[in-house]
Amino acid sequence: MDRPRRLRTTPAMRALVSETRIHPRDLVLPLFIKEGAREPIAISSMPGVVQHSEASLADAVRAAADAGLGGVMLFGVPLVRDEAGSGAIEPDGILNRAIRIAKEAAEGRTVVMADVCLDEFTSHGHCGIVTPDGTVDNDATNALYCAMAVEQAKAGVDVVAPSGMMDGQVAEIRSALDAAGYEHVSILAYSAKYASAFFGPFREAVESQLDGDRRTYQMDPANAREGLRETDFDLLEGADMVMVKPAMSYLDVLRDVSQRSSVPVAAYQVSGEYAMIEAAAANGWIDRTGAIMESLTSIKRAGADIVLTYWALEVAPRL
Ligand code: PBG
């Protein structure tokens, strides 16, 4: 008889034959920084996650470097928003300040990445310029993404991460960075990003009020093939890394992307995925640690090289 149970007999045996391992370097910690905050501010729908002050951001980046994390991903929460999201492009805007603080704290020990998207900075909450008829203007938005990416590069960012799902955004940002002398700055493209209910708690994290939804630019959850098409475009446009987002409901897409990609593949375990596990665990309905580790393992098993997760700091010492 075949007895596969032999390889499950002891913890040491199971560790020996484990097919999927997670290393702290695979993990990226998303961090929020709130303009003007004196203290870290709790985010109620994401227990354990905060909006950082400038001082606590530096501490968090040092902790990430000490834990051996692969990187941090920065999101800014500005005090003032307008139609065009102009705070994103101000050299001293909150996200650009955060990049300078994070770069200094990181001392080259962990990679500093930043979100290139306007939704945190616009009054209407959309990821780009909204025209009078209510559509998001693709090409006008790309021009702003280019300016935003160049400001981030000036602030010293290692990796820019365009997440707005505008057509051609990777190619345009690549040429803008190169033209400004930042050919060494990498692009992590949010390639297959879906219009997902699992981004819900993120809205509280960045205090964004969204008019309507994002279904004219983020992808339909029904479409897997289209995710591959988006990934192919981003690879051709010069993405250094590609991403699938959210992670757990899109493991099939992640698997297909990882088999096809010639560059490292990231997956983002988003705010709603975090909140679901925290909420169920707080009610005593699931084992918290077990669920966290199983979720991360499944994302790596599906083919992610890099996982963005709000639990990065917590799990790193266990790996
Ligand atoms: C766009 C952006 C979003 C997230 C990351 N980048 C929000 C959105 O597209 O609606 C969501 C991350 C999360 O939910 O954890 N700036």
List keywords for this structure.
eight-stranded parallel barrel, alpha/beta, 38% helix, 319 residues, porphyrin biosynthesis, porphobilinogen synthase activity, ALAD_AS, 11 helices, single chain, Aldolase_TIM, binds ligand PBG, TIM Barrel
What are the SSEs and their pairings?
Layout: H1 11-17, E1 27-34, E2 41-42, E3 50-52, H2 54-66, E4 71-77, H3 94-106, E5 111-116, H4 138-155, E6 159-162, H5 169-179, E7 186-193, H6 200-206, H7 225-237, E8 241-245, H8 251-260, E9 265-268, H9 271-282, H10 288-301, E10 306-308, H11 312-315
Parallel strand pairs: 1-3, 1-4, 1-10, 4-5, 5-6, 6-7, 7-8, 8-9, 9-10
Antiparallel strand pairs: 2-3
Bound molecules: ligand PBG.
Pathway: Porphyrin-containing compound metabolism; protoporphyrin-IX biosynthesis; coproporphyrinogen-III from 5-aminolevulinate: step 1/4
Keywords: Heme biosynthesis, Lyase, Porphyrin biosynthesis
EC number: 4.2.1.24
